[in-house]
Amino acid sequence: MRRKLLAVAAVTAALLVGAHVPAASADTAFDVLVFSKTAGFRHDSIPAGIQAIQQLGAANGFTVTATEDANAFTTANLAQYEAVVFLSTTGDVLNATQQTAFESYIRGGGGYVGVHAAADTEYDWPFYGELVGAWFASHPAIQQATMKVEDRSHPATAHLGATWVRTDELYNYRTNPRSTAHVLATLDESTYSGGGMGADHPFVWCKTVQSGRSFYTGGGHTQESYADTAFRTHLLGAIRYAGGKVAADCSPGTTQPPTGRIEAESFTSQSGVQVVADGTAHGGNRVGYIDNGDWVGYSGVNVSGKTGFTARVASGGTGGTIQVRAGSQTGPVLGTVAVTNTGGYGNFVDVTTSLAAGSGALFLVFNGTGAGGLFDVDDFALSGGTTPPPATNLALNKAATADSQCASTEGPAKAVNGTVNGGNADKWCSLGGTKWLRVDLGSAQSVGRIVVRHAGAGGENTAFNTRDFDLQTSTDGTTWTTAAQVRGNTTDVTTNTFGPVNTRYLRINIITPTNNTDTAARIYEFEAFAS
Question: Which helix (DSSP H) or strand (DSSP E) does residue 173 occupy?
Fold first, then answer.
């Protein structure tokens, strides 16, 4: 990507002559803003991209305004446009006021199309990371590769076959967006060299952000891309989707674990690890950032009568071992299994060991040498006796409301989204006079256990862990009964069992938010289980 800027005007004009995309069925007129400001590397294909989008607009009933002036990002000006295209932007391109206006525009129903280096933009702005889906990590040399088209119902991919062969600059991304976005096409890393994401390498995806629409394509590095009829049709479909002119299913999809296996991220206590979103993992998440001495515990999983342990793991690091312990992280070791480098964090394999007799809750303790993460764990199973099925989080992605939120990125939905990634982008925060979070389960459910992941679970100062709170139930959302009281808490994760109670609504009512003078309540995840 980072190479010397070339003179492009004559080349651009020559490439675009004769490129033709059949007009889409008539849309009502709409307006598109194309933004191509760069604060880092500048792509020599930007002029070709602007001209291509202008030509698409002229043929398909939308106007195009091209700018590199970030002052265009005001609430009043953005209101003119149905969609905003970030065309190979790089670096920090918007100031705080402009960021606020753009976030409000998207959350209020605006559309976004990110092209290529749009993923190399605004790394320190959490909302933009949510919007684009994944940030750029690296790329090999420009070369031909084959994409597998997963969804041909989207207007940006409806014209394609099952595969799409293109020559372009092929990005690797810092994270896999599959758990939060609808992946439309993936790169087949066996067809080129330099891929770094393994068997699941998303390259085109879409998603919704509250009322807004987001689309990202990794293509578009080369000038030739914008003369390619298939790529121009791809862009047209993306713009029509983002502009709200055609509907598409952009809900994320995940792969569930096989029956009888327990998701590693369903731990009830831990030290040192983080939950990492990963579309290749069963359930869409894995336990990662594992270093020597880290551990996870499962209060609802008993090792009594178990004779074997199998874990689905991946490692791009040095590997290490998993100790299976009973009762606590320092309890008796029932078995140990080695994890070696699997060829990357997207390459999962099963490792197995036999277990000695023991009793009590399951704890997994991780050991190894090296820095930067030893390995990741996706899910596991215990054999011998009866292995309980994976617990179902009844609160996952259910409707959540709260007394208030500290910022637009810290709303109550973040506390029931199933991830604990740390930072302001993945928690509910409140500075209100009364601090409460309410979850509507949608219908009456039997609830007997509530797990709350506090500030420390998300990587914040443990002094911010919620100190005093009540867990409450209600059948009508108005009259509340306290099922459990917690006072003087200092731990990152609290697990409270009760009842069980037949209830539709759950609430955490926070009395004292922290263990210091900070007055903000912080909840990274609120989980409810039948038992």
Answer: strand 172-173
Q: Is there a cis peptide before residue 500, judged by omega within 30 degrees of 0?
A: yes
Cβ neighbors of 233 (< 8 A, separation 6 or more) are: 21, 22, 159
Q: Which of 39, 59, 41 is nearest to 1 (CA)?
A: 41
Q: How many residues does the chain have?
A: 531
Amino acid at 338: A
Instruction: Measure the CA–CA gap between 182 and 475, rounded to whole angstroms.
Output: 35
Inter-axis angle of helices 46-60 and 9-16, nearest 10: 40
Q: Which two tokens stand for residue 459?
A: 């990587």
Whole-prediction pTM:
0.51
Tens-digit pLDDT profile for residues 182-240: 999 999 988 999 888 887 899 999 999 999 999 999 999 999 999 999 999 999 999 99
Cβ proximity of 147 and 188 under 8 Å? yes
- Cα–Cα distance measured from residue 228 to residue 514, given in angstroms and rounded to the nearest whole number: 57
Closest CA to 363 of 297, 454, 289, 275: 297
335 close to 364: Cβ distance less than 8 angstroms: no
Determine what percent of the chain falls in helix, strand and coil, rounding each to the nearest 5: 20, 40, 45
Instruction: Report the DSSP beta bridge partners of residue 501.
Output: 447
